[in-house]
Amino acid sequence: MGNVQSSLPAYYNADPTNEAYTHSLSKYVDLASSAIGAKLIKASNERFGAAANLINPSEPTSDAWVTRRHNPESDWAVVRLGSSGTIAGFDIDTRGLDGTHANQVSIQGCLASEDALVDGNGDVEGAEWTELLPRIEVSANSRHLLALWTPTTEAFNFVRLVLHPDGGVARLRIYGTVVPNRTEGECDLACVTSGARVVSASDETLGAKEALILPTKALATDSRGVRGWKTRRSRTDEHHDWAIIKLGEPGFLTRVEIDTATFDGDQPVRASIHACYTELESPERDTECFWYEIASRTELNANT
């Protein structure tokens, strides 16, 4: 029997209910978020809405990228990702768009110099586009969480969202794994651009745990518009909250920084930091893992 090529799509719906809090893409980083340094480089048309809205980490309201109607070909927007990374899936969000949304979209990616120019056709200087998501239909006022059956092994740092032929998209999330740029000397191992990831947290009712590892300190908002990791209040004596961060790579720790910027009156009273080494994805699964205290319980000041 000869080779048989599967007719199955390369992706699947990661959230058929459109209501899941966690899904198969939750463990990945949104590489296309402005919170980690992603930038809108160029768009073919922004007649009714700026393309920069695509990379806004906040939930969409009435803001979206919307192009003119009756385009004879297609519209496109090129985004430079916040970090180079392998791609695991996408969130194409048309919430707030009903009748002005794109009918069909596709996504391509490439790896190029950070300062590469983009021409009038949406092509990146010195690079060829690779298809990441084939042309698909999208619905109005909906999230389309599409996970690749197999994440790419190739890293990308530019993506191009194409609308067929025109219309609008409110947000574009590109989920993947950061491929960090190794540097000599001291670096922030707990930063998402170094490959760090927040494994778990005791609570994140009022602010997402992922805010802890953003490169823009506490000034970037999460998808709910909240700045920083923030838990619900507790009146219980000796109550404590915690978050576990998997560093980008093992390293010798020289100093730590706890930033309470934007928190005034709602910052923690005190904090301590512990560290461990495990080869498992989470130390919670390692019965032989031992935590070392590297920073004892310390009083924290507001907005510092």
Global morphology: globular
Secondary-structure-based class equals mainly beta
Gyration radius, rounded = 21 Å
Main sheet attributes: strand count, strand direction, barrel closure: 9 strands, antiparallel
> How many strand segments?
15
Helix proportion: under 10%
First and last CA, distance:
68 Å
Which key features would you list for this structure?
31% strand, mainly beta, globular, 304 residues, two-stranded antiparallel ribbon, disordered N terminus, nine-stranded antiparallel beta sheet
Structural features, described:
By secondary structure, the protein is mainly β. Helix content is 0%, strand content 31%. It contains no helices and 15 strands. The radius of gyration is 21 Å and the shape is globular.
Please specify the SSE layout and strand pairing.
Layout: E1 11-13, E2 29-30, E3 39-43, E4 65-66, E5 75-93, E6 104-110, E7 130-137, E8 143-148, E9 156-164, E10 168-169, E11 171-178, E12 197-201, E13 243-246, E14 270-275, E15 292-299
Antiparallel strand pairs: 1-8, 2-11, 3-5, 4-10, 5-8, 5-9, 5-11, 6-7, 6-9, 12-13, 14-15
